[in-house]
Amino acid sequence: MSSALVIVPARLAATRLPRKPLADICGKPMIVRVLEQALNADIGPVAVATDDTSIAEAVRDHGGTAVMTRDDHESGSDRIFEAAQTLDPDQKHDTVLNVQGDVPLIEPEAIRAAFAPLSVPGVDIGTIMTEIRDDRFRDDPNFVKAVTTPNGHGHNRALYFTRATAPGGGGPLYQHIGIYAYRRAALARFVSLSPSPLEKREKLEQLRALEASMRIDVSVIASAPMDVNTPEDLERARLAYQSL
Fold first, then answer.
1. In the chain, which ranges are E strands?
2. Residues 6+ apart with CB under 8 A from 220
3. Coil, helix or strand for 97?
4. Per-residue pLDDT reduced to its tens digit, 196-234
């Protein structure tokens, strides 16, 4: 594999935490904190893709790269595809990695773990999961479950993703974490597909790829990064940075 083009999609539209990407975390906007962690992963150049000039200006003010995209994208995948075409029209990078813009505490190792499954030929998309260790979350539909099987290369092949409690029987359950590494051709194919029946039923975009017979492999990481969606989450993130 060559290096990845790492793109962080960001938009201001958030109801529970208005202007979320620009929320201050110990002196820097949250989107800049995510950008820094992505740079620390050291797997390739990093840029923020946004439709808002204030986000782009905040990134550039802190020395980062930002690219403006259309304001009518329905998903982060569509946004990163447009950004990749702008940033790398000659496709020097054969992988595009999508890092969510609301995970300021994402560890660089977790970002690299999403990239790792693409070392296996035939894998279209890499992503990550972690074991659910708190029984309160086993039946929580907000904790998306990854149903996988070992792929023989140190990762796992995804069979399904669901908001239900699955698989049944004894044994661990794994929470899927929505960071994706796409082969360039796989990303182009994915954004060309219409939303699929199971995707619409479960409200999980990654099912579109599985229903189209695309292969998703998953690395296991030690713990889930905290995403920031509410003022309470933001305060916890600030406290975590203060303790670093």
1. 4-10, 24-25, 28-29, 46-50, 66-68, 95-98, 125-131, 145-150, 156-162, 174-183, 216-220
2. 113, 128, 129, 130, 131, 155, 156, 174
3. strand
4. 999 999 999 999 999 999 999 999 999 999 899 899 999
> Which residues does residue 5 pair with via DSSP β-bridges, in sequence order?
96
Q: Tell me how far apart the alpha carbons of residues 88 and 104 are, in angstroms, rounded to a whole number.
A: 25
Binned at pLDDT 50, 70 and 90, residue 136 comes out as very high
Q: Where are the beta strands (DSSP E) in 105-208?
A: 125-131, 145-150, 156-162, 174-183
Whether the predicted pLDDT of 165 surpasses 90: yes
* pLDDT-based confidence at residue 2 (cuts at 50, 70, 90): low
Q: What one-character-per-residue DSSP string does 67-90 give?
A: EE--S--SSHHHHHHHHHHHH-TT
Retrieve residue 40's tokens. Answer: 């620390």
Q: Are strands 24-25 and 28-29 parallel, antiparallel or unpaired?
A: antiparallel
Query: Alpha-carbon distance 128 to 114, whole Å?
Result: 5
Contact yes or no for 8/34 (Cβ under 8 A): yes
Predicted pLDDT of residue 73: 87
The dihedral through the CA atoms of 193, 194, 197, 201 has a sign that is positive
Structure tokens at 231: 């003022």
Q: Residue 208 half-sphere exposure, CB side, CA atoms within 13 Å?
A: 17
Which amino acid is located at 55 in the chain? I
- The pLDDT value recorded for residue 1 is 57
Per-residue model confidence (pLDDT) at position 75: 87
